[in-house]
Amino acid sequence: MRFYTTPIKLALAIVLTTSVLAAIISWRDVADNKAPERPNIIFILTDDMGYSDIGCFGGRFVPTPNIDRLAKQGRMFTQYYSAAPICSPSRAGLITGMYPGRWNFSTYLDNKKHNRNAEQADFLDPAAPSIARFFKDVGYATGHFGKWHLGGGRDVKNAPGFEQYGYDEHASTYESPDPDPLITATNWIWSDKDSIKRWDRTKYFVDKTLDFLSRHKGQPCFINLWPDDVHTPWVPRKETEYTGKYPMNPEEEDAFKLVLKEYDAQIGRLMDGLKQMRMDKNTIIIFTSDNGPLPSFRGSRAGGMRGSKLSLYEGGTRMPFIIGWPGHIPAATIDTSSMIDAIDMLPSLAKIAGVHLPKNYAGDGVDRSSALLGKPSARAKEMYWEYGRNNIAFRYPAGRDKSPNLAVRSGKWKLIMNSDGSDVQLYNINTDRNETSNLAEKEADVTKNLKIKLQNWWAGLPKLK
To answer: What is the architecture of the domain spanning 40-372?
Structure first.
């Protein structure tokens, strides 16, 4: 018995076969050309770490093999700057991508009286732009683990919660709206009564970070990992190698070395944990500091640069900076020419991750994604700083490290002066990063131009009274 295929049946068969093949090809095309998976981002903001605390930036205190390993897997930048020489405004600049003075941040947050004396707000306005909120809006899971210091603590009881800034989860210290009880047994920054001892805080925050990532596999994560143990008081665990009096002087060099050694070990645990979870290939890790060191041990923690925390000289604002992303950022490389500001992080990371910023967002930062990804470039805009509005609420370093209260960097030039126009100093940072030769009189035209720009910037900042 024979079966004959009619022309109509044959035509239908050809059409169906063609449709199925077209669908398969189309599906493969979509699969091959689908939008790339968004990377996880872990932003490690160390508290009070100096430019040369770590080995890869010339550190001499203790070996830091794990942080150095991060540098070997990524790219170092030697001209990265914090938004301020002290913690609260530095952090505000990083989160908002704007100069902290625009949100009435000028020094560290304390009690309400101190904040009024400093002419600043009690907390970051929840209406301010937030990098976490922008990333959350496009599907990122967001976490904050570590120090906050943008509102809360002491007598400030009305600081907004973390969720108002776009964070899904958090575990933070005393200086926050919701301190973690395991690390704040008493109403203070740390205590011997804390369940998680001070020397184990970074371990605790690293564990929180890894746990958060493990619970959000398949979803990109944006995480602030902001440890605080490099900030004084330095309280190391009892080490067999240390045989002196215990507890140690919390500001002596031996205590710092032990704390730094432990901190480096925990950065290693983070990197190993990411690899074990097979997340290391699609995770951007950024490692830097919020401001310069204090004490600086005769400038040795700032790479010999003038200044420290509380100063607008280079030692107070130039920070170590490492960024790694396997396969995307060239490994074991150093960029010595690209100037990058902390306020650039928001637009730069948004560009890298494909996060479209709101049309009404008017940040001060510049998209530096191409430099971060390995192509050095000049920064198109000046960078500005302030610290020291009065002698009531502001601390200052001693001697030659005390700077005037305003600064601007434009290309190779850096001008520093007081807001009343006094004590004008001009330095060629490319040839004099230690700021030893004041060229203000010799380069009169440059000085005049930058002085006008700095005065205009200062006049444009809101002033609380």
So the answer is: 3-Layer(aba) Sandwich (3.40)
pTM (2 d.p.): 0.91
Q: What is the DSSP string of 291-355?
A: S--SS-TTTGGGTT-S--TT-SSHHHHEEEEEEE-TTTS-TTEEESS--EEGGGHHHHHHHHHTP
Phi and psi at residue 414, to the nearest 5°: -135, 125
Domain ranges of the chain: 40-372, 383-459
Domain 383-459, CATH number (from 3.40.720.10, 3.30.1120.10, 1.10.20.10, 3.90.1030.10):
3.30.1120.10
Q: Give the β-pairing of 318-324 and 413-417.
A: unpaired
Question: Per-residue pLDDT for the chain (465 aa), expressed as one digit of tens each?
Answer: 333 344 434 343 433 444 433 443 334 433 334 445 899 999 999 999 999 999 999 999 999 999 999 999 999 999 999 999 999 999 999 999 999 999 999 999 999 999 999 999 999 999 999 999 999 999 999 999 999 999 999 999 999 999 999 999 999 999 999 999 999 999 999 998 999 999 999 999 999 999 999 999 999 999 999 999 999 999 988 754 444 554 567 788 989 999 999 999 999 999 999 999 999 999 999 999 999 999 999 889 999 999 999 999 999 999 999 999 999 999 999 999 999 999 999 999 999 999 999 999 999 999 999 999 999 999 999 999 999 999 999 999 989 999 999 999 999 999 999 999 999 999 999 999 999 999 999 999 999 999 999 999 999 999 886
